[in-house]
Amino acid sequence: MNVRLVEARRCPFCQYIVNTYIDPRNPKNTPHDGDISICAKCSGLSVFQGNELRLPTPVELAQSMRDKDLLHSIKELRAEWLGWSVY
After folding, report:
1. What is the dihedral of CA 21, 60, 42, 71, to 10 degrees?
2. What pTM does this model have?
3. By CB distance 3.0 to 4.6 Å, which of 12, 31, 58, 84 could disulfide with 48?
4. For 39-84, what is the HEC assignment?
5. Which H helix or E strand runs over 15?
6. In contact, 34 and 52? CB cutoff 8 Å
């Protein structure tokens, strides 16, 4: 999977500096305003907005929680971080 370097932003939850981006659905994609970000440290969901990551609105969060691919990505990230298996 292609990891893309992006302008550094801080996770609004844990303040971790996010400077890479991976889109598992389209590896050639770069982040755009409104795209969801999953923090590699706390696995919090945030939204790309200009040069920042912001908290998702209630509607964005509800839509994200219905996205099975996104939920699987969160599980994979947490499993990798904590040394668990998701399979």
Report:
1. -80
2. 0.79
3. 31
4. CCCCCCEEEEECCEEECCCHHHHHHHHCCHHHHHHHHHHHHHHHCC
5. none
6. no
Q: Which two tokens stand for residue 30?
A: 């770069």
The predicted pLDDT at position 79 comes to 80
Judged on CB neighbours under 10 Å (0-12, 13-18, 19+), 53 is buried
- The fraction of the chain above a pLDDT of 90, given in percent, is 39
Which residues fall within 8 angstroms of residue 17, CB to CB, at 6 or more apart?
8, 9, 10, 11
Q: pLDDT, tens digit, for every residue of 7-45?
A: 899 999 999 998 888 777 777 788 889 998 888 888 899
**Secondary structure (DSSP) of 20-35:** EE--TT-TT----TT-
